[in-house]
C-alpha cells in the first residue's frame, strides 16, 4: 500500500553536504514516524535517525550533530540533511518507519535506497 522512494544520494568529498529525500505514497503512510537507515557493504542495516513521541529527533552517535531529520507532513516528504560527511558515512540510505519492537526493522516494504559515497 505504501511505496518509498529515496533520492538525493551521490558522490561527495569528505566534509561536504548532501540532502536526502524520501517520498511516500499510500493510505497508511504516517510521515511523523518516518526514520532513516543506512547499510554499508558487508554491514548490517542500522537505524540512524528517528522521531520520538514528543517530536524531537533522535540520532545514532555516529551521525549526531551532523545529520538533521526533517519532514513536510502535507507533502509526505521526509528529508535527511547531512553535513560534514565522512568516508565512513558511505552506505546505501533508506527511509522507513522503525518497528517499535525492533528498531532495525521497518514496517513498510523497503525501497531501493539511495547510494551515498564519500571520498577522502
Outline the structure in words.
With 120 residues, the chain is mostly beta strands. It contains no helices and 12 strands. The chain has strands spanning 3-7, 10-13, 18-25, 35-39, 46-51, 57-59, 67-72, 77-82, 91-96, 98-99, 102-106, 114-119. It has a 6-stranded mixed beta sheet with strand order 2-12-9-4-5-6, with no helix packed on it. A 4-stranded antiparallel beta sheet has the order 1-3-8-7, with no helix packed on it. Strands 10-11 form a two-stranded antiparallel ribbon. Strand 5 (46-51) and strand 6 form a beta hairpin. The radius of gyration is 13 Å and the shape is globular. The model has no long low-confidence stretch (mean pLDDT 91).
Strand order of the largest sheet: 2-12-9-4-5-6
User: Span from first to last CA?
Assistant: 40 Å
Largest sheet: 6 strands, mixed
Q: N-to-C SSE series? A: EEEEEEEEEEEE
Q: Strand-residue fraction?
A: over 45%
Mean pLDDT, rounded to whole units? 91
Per DSSP E runs of 2 or more residues, the count of β-strands stands at 12
The Rg value, from CA coordinates, equals 13 Å
Structural class: mainly beta
Tally the helices. 0
Shape, please?
globular
Kindly state the percentage of residues in helix.
under 10%
The residue ranges in which pLDDT falls below 50 over 5 or more consecutive positions are none
